[in-house]
Amino acid sequence: MRIVQLPLGTGPQGNTWFKVDIKHHHGSTQVMVKYFGYIMNDSWLHQKALDIGYPPAKTPEDLDDNISLASINVMAATGVISYARVRRVKTPKGKYFWCIALACDDPFAVGERSLSTHPPPEAKYKALKEALGKDGPPHWYRAI
Length: 144
Hints:
Elements: E1 2-11, E2 14-22, E3 34-40, H1 42-52, H2 60-77, E4 85-90, E5 96-104, H3 107-113, H4 122-131, E6 139-143
Antiparallel strand pairs: 1-2, 3-5, 3-6, 4-5, 4-6
Helix pairs in contact: 1-2
């Protein structure tokens, strides 16, 4: 786990900073946890990081940083950062993506991750849906 600080804008007293913990999941889980959210691929997130102004990735660690920072920026800009988390998921077709998770089906994981077990109303994630260019509702995806 790493802690990063992100500028969220300039207020009357300078930059406003938001501290966020980023967890990367590697390997498999014992319990099949599912996340409800929108998925994004690495290339979309990397391009988003470049669009925001982050430098191009030179190492795999830089790429992970850019992906994390871009996803957090999208969550902050769309107002879901207080209740959403970024998680790695697998689709039914076996492809891996990053997911901006809005809910989790595991009540034990909820306490740790501050995610609800119930999907939020569409009005709460409409800006996220638009920012990601998604047409339909979020879906449930298996955690990896």
